[in-house]
Amino acid sequence: MEVRVLFWAFKRAPPTGALFHGPCAEDSFAIETPVPLRINEIFHSVQGESTWMGAPCVFVRLTGCPLRCGYCDTEYAFRQGAMRERADVLREVLSYDCDLVEITGGEPLAQREAFDLIRELLDAGRTVLIETSGAIGTAGVDPRAHIILDIKTPGSGEAARMDWSNVDRLRAHDEVKFVICSRSDYEFAREATRTHRLVERCRCVLFSPVHEQPRGVEIGGMQGLSPRDLAAWVLADGLRVRVQMQLHKIIWEPQTRGV
């Protein structure tokens, strides 16, 4: 929950002995203090997913997520992070000679100040991608941003948390991603793609085979799915989707942070 604090300052002191019950426009003014963001990490790497794969990108990873997907590869972002002023985060991101920025997590939209950060980055001329779980409403996101909407499959353990109104808000430059854990997940994603006409709604629909993920403290872990199997299913059904591998897990060891 967002908390905003208002400090009231008098233009002149209240009369001696007066009881102050609240501000009045004649004698006071309000200063709204921004709520800090909790940031897990900021780093410069190459984009590992989406149609932007391979492009240099600055990543801003926010702390916290309401979901606990069994295959989550950023469990460290559930709780680790430091409170930072939005202006400080903006300065660091803009210090990189890089036009592409991704806001990710955790679940970045769970922090309301992220919406203002997105707007400020766009105003500064950056292209902004938002990697979101689908569980938080996207209605307040600046329409210039590119949303990469992760529709959770049953294999994630969090499919029931999906806010399907986010699909209705997809725009032509947005993307949808399914992480596929099994044949039944594939069939779920295939039917969702058809039922919601996702290929027609957005820039690209991504089918990503789940990568093996060890059991963690708060996640159950997951066996990997063969990319070859997923590719065969897509080809057999003639789906107009993109089979996606996670490039950063090919370049670096899969558990490497900050890449």
| The top level CATH class name | Alpha Beta
CATH superfamily: Aldolase class I
Helical amount: 10-25%
Supply the number of helical segments.
Answer: 7
CATH architecture: Alpha-Beta Barrel
Low-confidence stretches at least 5 residues in length (pLDDT < 50)?
Answer: 1-30
Helix vs. strand class: alpha/beta
Question: Into which percentage range does the β-strand content fall?
Answer: 15-25%
Order of helices and strands: EEEEEHEHEEHEHHEHEH
The CATH topology is: TIM Barrel
Average residue-wise pLDDT: 89
Q: Main beta sheet, described?
A: 9 strands, mixed
In which order are the strands of the major sheet placed?
Answer: 5-3-4-6-7-8-9-10-11
Note the overall shape: globular
Number of strands: 11
Instruction: Please give the radius of gyration in angstroms.
Output: 21 Å
Instruction: Return the domain count.
Output: 1
In whole angstroms, how far apart are the ends?
30 Å
Structure notes:
This protein has 259 residues and is an alpha/beta fold. The protein has a single domain, classed as Aldolase class I (TIM Barrel), CATH 3.20.20.70. 22% of the residues lie in helices and 24% in strands. Strands 5-3-4-6-7-8-9-10-11 form a nine-stranded mixed sheet. A two-stranded antiparallel sheet has the order 1-2. Helix 6 (227-237) links the parallel strand 10 (204-209) and strand 11. Helix 1 (86-94) runs parallel beside helix 2 (113-123). The protein is globular, with a radius of gyration of 21 Å.
